[in-house]
Amino acid sequence: xxxxxxxxxxxxxxxxxxxxxxxxxxxxxxxxxxxxxxxxxxxxxxxxxxxxxxxxxxxxxxxxxxxxxxxxxxxxxxxxxxxxxxxxxxxxxxxxxxxxxxxxxxxxxxxxxxxxxxxxxxxxxxxxxxxxxxxxxxxxxxxxxxxxxxxxxxxxxxxxxxxxxxxxxxxxxxxxxxxxxxxxxxxxxxxxxxxx
Amino acid sequence: xxxxxxxxxxxxxxxxxxxxxxxxxxxxxxxxxxxxxxxxxxxxxxxxxxxxxxxxxxxxxxxxxxxxxxxxxxxxxxxxxxxxxxxxxxxxxxxxxxxxxxxxxxxxxxxxxxxxxxxxxxxxxxxxxxxxxxxxxxxxxxxxxxxxxxxxxxxxxxxxxxxxxxxxxxxxxxxxxxxxxxxxxxxxxxxxxxxxxxxxxxxxxxxxxxxxxxxxxxxxxxxxxxxxxxxxxxxxxxxxxxxxxxxx
Lengths: 196, 248
Fold this sequence. Notes:
Chain A has 196 residues and is of the alpha/beta class. Chain A is built from six helices and nine strands. In chain A, 41% of the residues are buried. Chain B is globular and about 75 Å long. The model of chain B has no long low-confidence stretch (mean pLDDT 94).
């Protein structure tokens, strides 16, 4: 795959052109276009049912659009809308599971990033909704990828904590596309794309 | 301790008394031997090296048959769940094996295998479809959301098996293995009775019957039941330890 396309002086890391997705009779995405630069945090906002989750699934290659094309510079890591945790694995193990064996020790970094260090030996059934969401986020960030597609990463997480975590995520210097409904978090990102 | 006495000791004592009183009432050892007669037969078996050798041979045959059936059944369960072609090829045959009477297998195999091997093959054939079915059901129960995650996060086959399929299949697999072990014992000993290998608990049963030694028949049955319970206990302990790793 070649380098990301250059547009108006900014190299684009994600480009989606003319994406149309239909579930039965319902048109979810109608010739949607998106360009995300290779640096910084992009916040994708919009009311429920606008197709944010569908768009992320298309970008991650998990759903095939009726029309349109997607170009990515490499592997996209998707944080699913659901936590999808392994009920029998501890918090630490869930992160170690996605790291290469030689890097298992790095789990502590992602636990600290998402403020889960104290909960490292707990299992998902012992976590609150917000903690489970942070664990799913930590696991996605532990994967190596060219771009991170994060579907509602702070659902159920209190605002102050979400702001702290978002600041740490920025320091990772990875291209990230986040969805959400909280204007305060959108303001902390580099750009906001509104899905109407 | 007191609870154990109430739950196990007292019912055992009750049925022992029923047995003793019924045997006295019947009054014929050929029809119902008294507990003392069976105890004497057991003591005789315990003092004979050949009995130990026969019991050990039976134990090994059942374990071998169950092992083959469990391994093949699990592998075929995974294969038929994963591949439509494997499903088309093997599933009808395995359903047919499940419905064939055990005695038909014993008689068919009697002509083609050495007598000592027939119980092994019969135990394997009885365990195979039970384990296959439970493995297939268990693998089909894997959470599709976790499977999608495993694919998206590029877990690879071994990690997907360890983290998604095995935990999903564990409850059905353990139930299947336990049922299959019981079937392996029943069918394997039946095959020994009919085929009479030189060293076998089933052969001991058949000899006791031939000499109208009902106490001997009961004594050999006790030996078989004790071996079966011991093996089942070990298997349950091992499976419980395995499943404990997947508790929430």
